[in-house]
Design a protein that fits this description.
Layout lengths: L1 H19 L11 H12 L12 H13 L14 H8 L6 H13 L14
Helix pairs in contact: 1-5, 3-4, 3-5
């Protein structure tokens, strides 16, 4: 039980630092390489709005990467599904501390309130 408490405390401390940090954008826009990488990531999106086949965290990583490249993850769509839709649909399943922390950071990157992602408090 003690290691789980330590992991949960560390995840919450990381979340506090991230949520307190301002959102920074590059006024000049992304470089050509960054824009190209964001376009590539978008080509790997699946029909449910998610990315890859290695668990929900892979989609959360894609949200981080897209936002870092200056791309709004809600605008990256396959049909009518975005990675934000995927996050909304999977938030309640993030029951482990590390998964919930990663989902909370993805929610922040997607301009969602991590305290209420489709009714789930990820914090």
């Amino acid at each position: 039980m003690r290691p789980a408490f330590i992991r949960a405390a560390a995840a919450m401390a990381a979340a506090l630092v991230i949520f307190a940090a301002p959102v920074v954008s590059n006024a000049d826009g992304p470089s050509d390489a960054v824009a190209s990488a964001a376009r590539y990531i978008a080509t790997t999106q699946q029909a449910d709005g998610g990315f890859g086949g290695f668990g929900d965290g892979q989609t959360f990583d894609a949200i981080f990467a897209l936002r870092s490249a200056g791309v709004d993850p809600a605008r990256v769509r396959v049909g009518d599904k975005s990675p934000v839709d995927f996050l909304n649909g999977r938030a309640a399943e993030q029951t482990q501390a590390a998964a919930a922390a990663k989902a909370a950071m993805a929610a922040r990157a997607a301009n969602l309130d991590p305290r209420s992602v489709n009714g789930t408090n990820l914090l």
